[in-house]
């Protein structure tokens, strides 16, 4: 007498022997090729810049002199600088949204939510003074989108720029505040 379990096993063996080996080989090969593609695909530019930004955080935090930190930041790839700002905010536990492209982003390098408030981010590397026009454009963009903004840069912020944007929705982050952002102790002034 055949038990129900034996019958099921025999039925499965009979069904498997009826299948052609060619379709199974094709399916198996397709599965292996797709798996290898995902395992061996080249690193995307975004992933590479995010990885590099994490390395920059460690490097900057290992430099002792604040001015040397700023000098180092002025030399990194501008896209890595954008990712650096987003990575620092992410590390602090804020929800961030990274852009899918670096150029043609409409002036928004990313978005962060801090204390339930949405901030647009503009990150710029400057060697000299910050461009008033860049901040004006970003301020206009933030007002249009009805958001606050973090304008983060490595340059110098002139007194006129500070007084001009003091009452706007733009928080200009540079110098010691930029270094605080990188070290993990940043909070917006708005």
Order of strands side by side in the largest beta sheet?
Answer: 1-2-3-4-5
How many strands, which pairing sense, and closed or not: the largest β-sheet?
5 strands, mixed
Count the DSSP helices.
8
Class of secondary structure makeup: alpha/beta
**Which sequence of SSEs, written as H and E, runs from N to C?**
HHHHHEEEHEHEH
- The share of residues in extended strands comes to 5-15%
CATH class of the largest domain: Alpha Beta
The tally of beta strands, per DSSP, is 5
CATH architecture classification of the largest domain: 3-Layer(aba) Sandwich
* Rg, Cα atoms, Å: 26 Å
Mean pLDDT: 86
Shape: elongated
CATH T-level fold name of the largest domain: Trna Endonuclease, Chain: A, domain 1
Total tally of structural domains: 2
Can you describe this structure?
It is built from 8 helices and 5 strands; from the N terminus they run αααααβββαβαβα. It has helices spanning 4-18, 21-40, 45-62, 66-75, 78-91, 132-145, 159-165, 175-183, and strands at residues 95-98, 110-114, 117-124, 148-153, 170-173. Strands 1-2-3-4-5 form a 5-stranded mixed sheet. α3 packs across α5 (78-91). The longest helix has 20 residues, at 21-40. The model has no long low-confidence stretch (mean pLDDT 86).
Keywords:
single chain, 190 residues, alpha/beta, Trna Endonuclease, Chain: A, domain 1, five-stranded mixed sheet, 8 helices, 5 strands, 56% helix, elongated
Write the layout of secondary structure elements.
Elements: H1 4-18, H2 21-40, H3 45-62, H4 66-75, H5 78-91, E1 95-98, E2 110-114, E3 117-124, H6 132-145, E4 148-153, H7 159-165, E5 170-173, H8 175-183
Parallel strand pairs: 3-4, 4-5
Antiparallel strand pairs: 1-2, 2-3
Helix pairs in contact: 3-5
